[in-house]
Amino acid sequence: KAGVTQTPRYLIKTRGQQVTLSCSPISGHRSVSWYQQTPGQGLQFLFEYFSETQRNKGNFPGRFSGRQFSNSRSEMNVSTLELGDSALYLCASSLDSATRGSPLHFGNGTRLTVT
Amino acid sequence: QQQVKQSPQSLIVQKGGISIINCAYENTAFDYFPWYQQFPGKGPALLIAIRPDVSEKKEGRFTISFNKSAKQFSLHIMDSQPGDSATYFCAAGYGNKLVFGAGTILRVKS
Question: Under an 8 A CB cutoff, do B89 and A104 touch?
Answer without folding.
Answer: no
